[in-house]
Amino acid sequence: MNQLNRRVFCLSSISAAGALALTTPPTRAQAQPLEVARILLGFPAGSAADALARALAQRLAPTYAKQVIVENRTGAGGQIAATALKTAPSDGSTILFTPLAAVGVFPHTFRSLPYNVDTDFAPVTLGTRFDVALAVGTAVPESVKSVPEFLAWAKANPSRANVGSPAPGSPLHFTIAELTRLSKVELQHVPYRGTVAAIPDLISGTLPAMVSTVSEFVRHIPEGKIRVLGTSGGRRNPFTPQIATFGEQGLKELEFEDYFAFYVPARTPAAQIQALNAGIRQGMAHPAVKELIDSSAAQAATGTPEELTSTLRAYSRRWEAVVKNIGFKAD
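Now predict its structure.
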C-alpha cells in the first residue's frame, strides 16, 4: 500500500468514528438502484485519490447503482472534473470527488471559474480529512528538528531558504506564505507540478524544504532522509504522533485541516442525496476502504450535507483572507 503515498491526497476526514456513524435510514432511492453511476475525479489513475474512489465504487454497487465507474477528468487542479459535474444530469448518477480547494480556494484565486459551488452543486458529504506538514531534506543540517529551528536556519541562510510545494495556488503553497508572514523570515516558494520531481529533489538536497500533505512524507521518515518538522492539525497527527503541531511550536494561526468531499449536480432530489450519503458512509467504513485511507495517512470524515456546507464556508473564509493578504492570482 505504500505506493499510494506518492501523490498528494489532497489528498487531504473528521474521524473514523464519524465514518462508522451510519444514522441515515434506507430510502426508496436505495430500493431502486440506478443503472450506472459515475465518480468524477480530477486526478490520474494510480493516484491515492483514484485508488480510494475505485474502492468506494465497489462498495456503492449494487445497492446505490448496479454499476459504479470512476472517470478520471484530469487537469486544471480539478476544474475539469468539477465543470463536468455542472452539466451532468441531476439524478444522482454523477458524483464529484474533489479536494475542497477546488470549490473553496479557487473562487478566490481565479478571476472567473466555469462553475459555482453555491448554484451548480449540491453537497453530499465530506470524504477524508488530512493534515499538511513542513518537511526538510538532506540540505538542512540534522540539528534542525523543529519549525522554529528551520526558520532560524533559513534566516541565517537566505540564499538557501527555498520551500517547495506540489500544488501552486493551493493551501500547500499558501502555508509557505503564512510561514513567511508570521515569522518575518523570507521563504522563497518553489512551485512543482505534483510530487514526482519534488520528493526526489528534497531527498537529494536540491530542495531544502517542502510543504505537502503528511501522506507524502510518512513512508520516507524511517529512511532518515526526510524529517517532518511540524503538522497543521489541531492535535498531533495519528500517523506522526512524535511530531509536534505548528500550534505547539508557537504558530497557532497555521492550525488547519484539508479535505476531500463529494458533490452532485444542483437540483438532485433530496432522497437521492440521502441515499448516496448513506452509501458513501457505509462504504467508507468498510475495512478495505478504511485500509486505503489509513495507507494515505488520512482519516474518514463523513457526515451530513449541512456539515459539508458549514466546513466549506469556514474553509473558504480562512483561505480568502490569506489570498487577499498575499495578493495571489492564478490567472
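Residues 2-130+258-326 form a domain with the D-Maltodextrin-Binding Protein; domain 2 fold (CATH 3.40.190.150).
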